[in-house]
Amino acid sequence: MRVLGIDCGSQYTGYGVVEQAGRELVCCIAGAIKLRPRDSMAAKLQHIFSELTAIIATQQPEMVAIEEVFYAVNVKSALKLGQVRGVAMLAASSCGLQVAEYAPLAIKSAVVGYGRAEKQQVQQMVMRLLKLPEVPEPTDAADALAIAICHIHTASTLSRYEAAHS
User: Fold this and answer.
1) Which domains does the chain show, CATH number per domain?
2) How far is CA 143 from CA 14, 60, 82, 165, in A?
3) Which of 36, 69, 122, 156 is deepest in the core (most CB within 10 A)?
4) Is 39 considered catalytic here?
């Protein structure tokens, strides 16, 4: 299974592709799409869309996973984040991929085993699970990898459950 995790943000949108090879998790690519503050919102969204579709084309994930909106400092931030999430979903669906959404609590639980884990704990576990020499930078990339790992763990748990009950 190969999953593209996307951590949506109005300044940086993190991405990370994780592949499950047997029992091993492998980081294929990770990074962040940096947005220029002076660009119009339309230009920022176009940039995110084209970068994500290019990543999907080169990395060939089977699925896309993103974080659900859980909290925003203000309405304006929430609207911007919603627009970025919409564009990320559009990029995935325009490439024929399904999108899974996960709450921050579920992501932290799947990666660290504790839903209230600190950001640094999540980053350290991402590094360990993927056997990386250091924490992926920027933090948005580590968050995107955590989202992808969450989907892989959730999907494998569901498939084991279905196999046991069929």
Assistant:
1) 2-164 (3.30.420.10)
2) 7, 20, 18, 33
3) 122
4) no
pTM of the model: 0.92
Q: Which of 24, 51, 118, 140 is flagged as catalytic?
A: 140
Task: Single out the catalytic residue among 7, 19, 39, 51.
Answer: 7
Question: For this structure, is 7 an active site residue?
Answer: yes
Q: Give the C-alpha separation, 38 to 41, whole Å.
A: 9
Of 67, 101, 134, 137, the active-site residue reads 67
The per-residue pLDDT for range 76-125, each reduced to its tens digit, is 888 888 999 999 999 999 999 999 999 999 999 999 999 889 989 999 99
16-64 pLDDT per residue, tens: 999 998 889 999 999 999 999 999 999 999 999 999 999 999 999 999 9
